[in-house]
Fold L-rhamnulose 1-phosphate aldolase.
Amino acid sequence: MIEAPYPELEEIMRKMGDAGKRMAEIDATEGAAGNISVCMRWPVDLSKHFPLVKDIELPLAVPGLAGATVLVTGSGCRLRDVLAEPTANLAAVTVDEGGKTGKIYTSPLCSFERPTSEFNSHLAVHEDQMRISGSNFLAVLHAQPIHITFLSQIPRYQNTQFFSQHLLRWEPETIFNFPTGIGFMPFCVPGTPELMEGNVELLRKHNMVVWAKHGVMTFSDQSVVRAADRIEYAETGAKYECLNLQFGEIGEGLSAEDVRQIAKFHNLEQSVF
């Protein structure tokens, strides 16, 4: 939840750019991979940055987002470019009453034809999570971190409990970011209703989901940078796990009892260990 006075559009775009830059720095967004969106439920003046407008049909009906403004990266855009050229790589979508249609606002600098191909998943998560939390703000981020995505290719890691316990055992900080673990979803074709529906369901239980052989999606109702932080924490755990595999699994990491003691000391409810 964001309290008034609400951040200016320029600040939101800058933070989206910061998140995209960080994803590029940790090799989580090769080429045009990855996408970001931010949903805002307060009045947003789009005229200065996005003066061009046309009607669009949304990829799914989201009546719960009626009146909201969604800032989203364009299809084929590179997340690393958002910071330097935000209006060339972002569009703003306002949702009409009923949630089936909207208006898309773009800049004369716009470098794409439509929002990200994962826009259906973004909209579905925004509607579901904002309904659950009652928040007026949500950032959603999809990226493809190398080590997490590699581990998702290994059969024994294709399980929420196993995946979570093995990534969260390497540093004390990770359990605070993922107290219910990291959800794991079997492979689905990108952009499909199956991916969207499974993603929404798992994000009700976990604040990050691994899309098998594809990447991750996470969210934050505070800042897009906080969503990026979660990916960075998880990817760091995956790096440790990959190192351990390379060295013959000689590392033990934190034991289940170690994590339980950390959680007890900090009064943290966790369901992973």
